Each structure stands twice: as C-alpha cells, then as structure tokens.
C-alpha cells in the first residue's frame, strides 16, 4: 500500500506491530518510574471521594461500581497529564527510534508497491513516475501531509484512542 497521508501511515505503523511495542514500552517505563505512586494515589483519592459522596454506590453490583468510578476518573485529566509528563517522550533516542520505525513503515509501503504484480496493484492508481502530472502535483501535498507534526498529531490521537 502506498502511504499518502498521516492516517495511512499510522494504520500501517499499527499493522506492523510497532505501535503496540511502543505502547508496551511506554507503559513499562511508566510502571517502573517514581511517578507511578503519585498516579495511583490520585486515582485512589478520586475513587474514594466518589464513593464517599454517593454511599449507595456500595450497594450496586461490582461492574456498575467500576463503571461509575471509571467515569469519575475520566472526568479528571490525570492520564493525559501522565502522558504529557512522560520523560521518555522527550528522550532523543526514543524519538529517533519512533522516526526510524515510521521510516521503515514508509519504506515497506514503497517496496510493496514496487514489488506488486499488476494483479496485486490497485486498478485506479496511475504509475508513479515523473512523467505523471498527477503524481508531481501530489508530491507537495504528500510532503505537507507527512510532516512530523502531522504524524505526531495522528500518533497522539491513536495513542489516546487506546
């Protein structure tokens, strides 16, 4: 698949398994950090306050209590703050690793297109060569669409969606 926009890049990145690997690495790093205790304490405080403010919650079934408490916790931006404050996200080597993974994903997409047989290729696509005016017109748009900030925005959205 030829990657033409940030959404496609993120989709291919997820299919490659890199997204899940990065997510696991970030979670593992967070769990080993000293910030974990503060995070757990804040979640515990929010849950206790909710239970204290509504005593009838205790008589509800466990799944209903859990749903209520998760909804209450979601009202506070504690997860978002934990993500923003994650030192690993500003580590140059971690960022370089993400960039390398994204570049491998893009390269794999180009390789697949170059190695596709006519029956495997998408029938409505024009050949990508310098003689194709549609291709030349799309290059600036593709470069604008795949800027690091656009990719980061899509990646952040995908990460928060999990």
From TrEMBL:
The protein's name in its UniProt record: BOD1/SHG1 domain-containing protein
Region (Disordered): 106-136
InterPro entries attached to this UniProt entry: BOD1/SHG1_dom
Annotated Polar residues bias: 114-135
Entry superkingdom: Eukaryota
Organism: Suillus plorans
Domain BOD1/SHG1: 8-86
């Amino acid at each position: 698949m030829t990657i033409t926009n940030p959404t496609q890049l993120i989709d291919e990145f997820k299919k490659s398994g890199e997204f899940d690997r990065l997510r696991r690495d970030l979670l593992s790093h967070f769990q080993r950090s000293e910030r974990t205790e503060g995070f757990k304490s804040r979640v515990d405080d929010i849950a206790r306050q909710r239970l204290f403010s509504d005593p009838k919650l205790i008589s509800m079934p466990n799944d209903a209590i859990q749903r209520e408490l998760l909804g209450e916790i979601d009202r506070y931006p504690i997860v978002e703050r934990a993500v923003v404050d994650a030192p690993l996200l500003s580590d140059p080597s971690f960022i370089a690793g993400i960039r390398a993974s994204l570049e491998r994903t893009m390269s794999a997409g180009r390789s697949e297109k170059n190695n596709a047989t006519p029956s495997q290729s998408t029938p409505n696509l024009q050949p990508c060569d310098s003689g194709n005016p549609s291709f030349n017109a799309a290059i600036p748009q593709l470069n604008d669409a795949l800027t690091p900030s656009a990719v980061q925005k899509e990646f952040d959205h995908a990460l928060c969606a999990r």
